[in-house]
Amino acid sequence: MTNPMRKKLASAVQSAVLTKSARRCALCFHLNGTLAEKMGQIAHVDKNRSNDAEGNLVFLCMDHHTFYDSKTSQHKNFTPQEVRAARASLYAAIANRQHHVAASSHADRSFDSDRQRLTALIQLMSVSGSIEFLRECSFAGWSFEWSRLEGIEIVLARQGPEHEFLNKDLERLRRSFLNACQHTITTLATNTFPVGLKRDRQAVPAELETEKPELFKQRVDEIHSACDALCNTYDRLIRTARWTLGV
């Protein structure tokens, strides 16, 4: 015997189920206490697709809907009584706005985590002095110590997920900052060379200023442009993060 063709649910009935469940899966909540919003479907508790009474409907995530409707004998499936009990518990939790409390708690943890990342970045730049150095240094005829870039190099070395912001907008800005850091390091490495005996100091070759002044200016301008872009990207990240995280 085949199931009858699925018909469209009455809008009022569908709205009632979605509102009472807040698009949370009854079985996810029943099994794991999960109150996260899920992509899912409205399922028929008695598996009779012609019975569209509200009391016979439940919102399930895609996986649990497929699992509930399956007929395999390899597992003990959920009973209609169990699904109804799960739905009742979910509806009570939603009515008590527990899903908002759970979302708020998750947001608080995310904010705390991102605040820690922001603090670590600010402290690194403060201790190393790399950002202030790049803001103020003139590369037109002056040498510099490569060690002044230590903070930038440390940032570039921190590539693991533990250094990523959980907030997507902040992580996007962090990646822009990383790109600016890499571009600046590459630009300095390409256009400056070691000078002096210690070999830690570098500069745009001084002879270019007299022999090829246009090339000298081009290299200096390229370095200053890269440094300005890096500092501006850093400032935008810090300002946005402080505003977003309430720091």
Question: What is the alpha-carbon Rg in Å?
Answer: 30 Å
Strand content: 5-15%
SSE sequence, one letter per element: HHEEHHHHEHHEEHH
Note poorly predicted spans. 1-6
Order of adjacent strands in the largest pleated sheet: 3-5-4
The coarse overall form would be: rod-shaped
Distance from N terminus to C terminus (CA atoms, Å) equals 64 Å
| Tally of DSSP helical segments | 10
Helix content: 55-70%
Pairing-aware structural class of the strands and helices? mainly alpha
Main β sheet profile = 3 strands, antiparallel
Give the rounded overall mean pLDDT: 87
Strand segment count: 5
Any chance you could write out the topology, listing elements then pairs?
Elements: H1 11-21, H2 26-32, E1 40-44, E2 57-61, H3 62-69, H4 80-95, H5 98-128, H6 130-136, E3 144-145, H7 150-157, H8 168-191, E4 193-195, E5 201-203, H9 207-211, H10 213-245
Structural write-up:
The structure is a single chain. The chain is mainly alpha-helical and 247 residues long. It is 61% helix and 7% strand. The chain contains ten helices and five strands. It has helices at 11-21, 26-32, 62-69, 80-95, 98-128, 130-136, 150-157, 168-191, 207-211, 213-245; strands at residues 40-44, 57-61, 144-145, 193-195, 201-203. Strands 3-5-4 form a three-stranded antiparallel β-sheet. A two-stranded antiparallel ribbon has the order 1-2. Helix 2 crosses helix 4, helix 5 (98-128) runs antiparallel to helix 10 and helix 8 packs antiparallel against helix 10 (213-245). The radius of gyration is 30 Å and the shape is rod-shaped.
